[in-house]
Amino acid sequence: MYLSYDLYSKELGGIASEDKFKALEANTESMFDARTRMYYQKHSIDEDTNSWRVLMFRKAMTAQINYLFANDITSADELINKDIKSVSIDGTTITNNSSIKDTNSNGISNLALEYLAQTGLLFRGVGLC
Questions:
Q1: Phi and psi of 102, rounded to 5°?
Q2: Cα separations in angstroms, 23 against 5, 19, 27, 51
């Protein structure tokens, strides 16, 4: 667990109830692990000496959990299904709900991505020799 409920709710502005938090935190953790190449699976977040990276990562977690909670979603799969506004079978037409689609990238909210960008964990470039 990268984020405790106490830290989430008391210091970082979390809005989800404690009973919903556990599932939302676990799903957010999975989404962030995939996006950050499992950085905090390989390194302990509690032992990370870069306090800025830890703070921004936890703010990103809070923003994502709040986003999922506010949209009544518990996983990225639900977000994908909620994104569909209407379906026409015979004409094979699918209309997306642009309000949800425009506020996230592959299930991660735009605000959470802004915080994650501050950590350097999204960098995919090649280091200098």
A1: -75, -10
A2: 12, 8, 6, 26
The pair of three-digit structure tokens given for residue 19, joined into one six-digit string: 């009973």
Q: How far is CA 2 from CA 96, 112, 126, in A?
A: 32, 15, 27
DSSP structure class, residue 128: P
Q: What distance lies between CA 73 and its chain's CA centroid?
A: 12
User: Do 68 and 104 form a contact (C-beta atoms < 8 A)?
Assistant: no
pLDDT in tens, 89-128: 776 765 655 555 556 777 899 999 999 999 999 987 766 6
Taking the whole predicted model, whether its pTM rises above 0.90 is answered as no
Alpha carbon of 65 to those of 19, 39, 97, 128: distances in Å? 13, 19, 20, 36
